[in-house]
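Might you be able to review the protein record set out just below?
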Amino acid sequence: MVFSRVGTWDLPVPYRIHLHLAVSFLIEEAMAIADTIEAPTRLEGKYGAILVCWILGFGSFVPWNSMLTIEDYYSWEFPPRRYHPARVLTVVYQLFALGTMAILAYNESKIDTRKRILIGYIIFFIDALVQGGLVGDLSFMCPEFIQTFLAGLAASGALTSALRLITKAVFEKSSNGLRKGVMLFLAISTFFEFLCIFLYAFIFPKLPIVKYYRAKAASEGSKTVSSDLAAAGIQTEAASQEVEADDKQQQQRLSSKQLFFQNIDFALVLFFIFVLTLSIFPGFLFENTKSHHQLGSWYALVLVAMYNVWDSISRYIPLVERLKLKSRKGLLFATISRVLFIPAFYFTAKYGGLGWMIMLISFLGLTNGYLTVCVLTEAPKGYKGPEQNALGNLLVLCVLGGVVAGASLDWLWLIGSNEQF
């Protein structure tokens, strides 16, 4: 009754304070209810997005794994004693990928991620264009997305190895069978590339949860998601107006240099993981172990398959929080301790049996996949969308740097061996 006759500002001060608090409380409650209503809509399509991320990861590594798993064909066409195809192809391909990735990482904020990824799938140049773009893109979404994408990368190795073993067995006794098996294998691999193009172009950007995270990144100043938002039917003009209204927030974004030095331990971990792995895999397996076992050209394929299987399995281990290594010092120590693989492989190849070599290569794959996922899912935490995208590109650059360095060091295995330059 007092309110019906008296204006709000005519009330005594204590009443006004209580009224203000009550109104504020009701507004906050209403906003909380609105958020709970919107949240399920935003998160719709999460499991569909996880499946698409796995397939995109699978397709991202198909060209690279296809090249690795037909090394037996290269060795038949180009004798290792003279040409060293397992080593030459790895260094040349990854060196070119590293140079391209360095340019893309430097200009990541100006490059349209959608066009970059689609071009990469179309021309089969995956390492620099697709992996860097997708790791950056997924870094500002759910951690499960990037974990699943990385699991798909490893699964492509396991499945392409299995497929290569099947095609080799089917055509082994036919005339020109090795070439026929390789052609069928590459045709199947090409199918997966076209599947990835379709999924990324027409399905992934329209999933509600993906649209939510990309719109959120755009509101934080990201310019790399404009084409993806347009493909999803979101007005990019509205997004750009939000960005212009938030210029101060954009200016506070950390530079790539600052991000690198804040995460230099993560960068070194990824670099050394792949330096060690590529110094053994695949060149050492194809050219330094053949003479010690009776499987002939099947031996290296079996070892590659075992590496890929355990690399794939290990990328699911961090899904269990208790088994996930989050400590920066712990990750660095685990990575440095992998240097023990070098003498272990040397003595196993020289004196050990088949079982020991399979166990060793399995453990190499296990540690490679596990440590990679731990780093790439932990590093982006605590940053804004544009910073997470930039950091993802920088970390992939470190991966490719490690791959090139490892593939180059792989030539040192030829010193003192029967295989000469």
User: Anything to note?
Assistant: The chain has two domains: 13-42, 43-414. Confidence is low (pLDDT under 50) at residues 1-9, 29-41. The domain at 43-414 is CATH 1.20.1250 (Growth Hormone; Chain: A;). Residues 13-42 form the longest helix (30 residues).
